[in-house]
Amino acid sequence: MGHIELASGALLDTVDDIHDIEALAGPVGDGARRKDIGRVDHNFARFIERSPFMLLGTASADGRGDVSPRGDLPGFVHVLDERHLAIPERPGNRRMDSIHNILETGRAGLLFLIPGSDDTVRVNGRAAVTRDAALLASMAVDGRPPALAIVVTVEEAYLHCAKAFRRSRLWDPAARIDRSEIPSAGCMLQEQLALDQPGEQVDAYLEAGYTKTMW
Question: How far is CA 4 from the centre of its chain?
């Protein structure tokens, strides 16, 4: 066993052996073992084509993980065939962490969500970046095609159970917190980056940018 040392000096034990993990978690059920179908069938295609939001997981060559939220019009991820998905790279902060990681490792994991649905679809596979003109044109919004797209070659595809959503009550309006309970993005950035502008001004700047560079 190893440990993690906290700032207080306290030590948290870590479990380093997969057999110990399996003993703690219990055996894998037959359904869980067999649920990966390795392709996007008509059921998954229907789900993905109605999803307006997904999480894109990647990792760099030295093992640094990254998860990027991707939201767009429903069906923004194109199902090219049962083994290929295409994700438009819309305007962002230009860090392109996901793109850098894909160029280094050629791998990606996707998690598709639909508001109100407690089920999700997970896809893992090889990933590549394309600037194919015809594909990008098919992804245009308001006449603006993305500059790039990510194409994922599906190796694993399976339905994820609803427990996380049931526990978190994610879609339950009664579980929503008052937005005033957490600082705004502008206030966080003002403090974290020691900006001269007040947080409210940073918020206004962000909102103006959203209206101009959505697609």
Answer: 27
How far apart CA 45 and CA 182 sit, in angstroms, is 37
d(CA 144, CA 139): 8
Task: Pick left, alpha or beta for residue 55 (phi over 0 → left; psi -120 to 50 → alpha; otherwise beta).
Answer: beta
The per-residue pLDDT for range 55-93, each reduced to its tens digit, is 999 999 999 999 999 999 999 999 999 999 999 999 888
The count of residues in the chain is 215
* pTM for the structure as a whole: 0.92
- What the block records as the tokens of 71 is 């939201």
SS3 9: coil
Written as one letter, the residue type at 110 is L
Measured CA to CA, the distance from residue 183 to residue 77 in angstroms comes to: 32
b (16+ CB within 10 A) / e for 60-84: eeeeeeeebebebeeebbbbeebee
Other Cβ atoms closer than 10 A to 44:
22
Structure confidence at residue 1 (pLDDT): 73
Tell me, letter by letter, the H, E, C secondary structure of 122-153. EEEEEEEEECCHHHHHHCCECCECCCEEEEEE
Q: Which residue do the tokens 């797209």 mark?
A: 149
- Average pLDDT, rounded, for the chain: 95
> What DSSP letter does each residue of 63-132 carry, written as one string?
--EEEEEEE-STT-SEEEETTEEEEEE----S--HHHHHHHHH-EEEEEEE-TT-S-EEEEEEEEEEE--
